[in-house]
Amino acid sequence: MADNFLERHTEDYEQRKQQWLLRKRHIKVKHTKRNIHKPDDEAL
């Protein structure tokens, strides 16, 4: 196209994608540890 429409939008997309990926790396995912207690007498 004459005004480089696709090229501009591709560049904008790539920049937004890089910013998103950088932010994504810094987000820490909380992993909860399950605390399963077995009874002392398993016959119960």
- Give the percentage of residues in beta strands: under 5%
Oligomer designation: single chain
Whole-Å distance between the termini?
76 Å
- Topology as H/E string? H
The chain-level structural class is: mainly alpha
Helix % is 40-55%
Detail the poorly predicted runs. Answer: none
Q: Give the averaged pLDDT, no decimals.
A: 80
Number of strands: 0
Shape: rod-shaped
Q: What's the total helix number?
A: 1
Describe this structure in words.
This protein is mainly α. It is 50% helix and 0% strand. It has one helix at residues 5-26. The protein is rod-shaped, with a radius of gyration of 25 Å. The model has no long low-confidence stretch (mean pLDDT 80).
What does the secondary structure layout of this molecule look like, with pairings?
Elements: H1 5-26
Summarize the structure.
By secondary structure, this protein is mainly α. The protein has one helix at residues 5-26.
Keywords summarizing the entry:
44 residues; mainly alpha; 50% helix
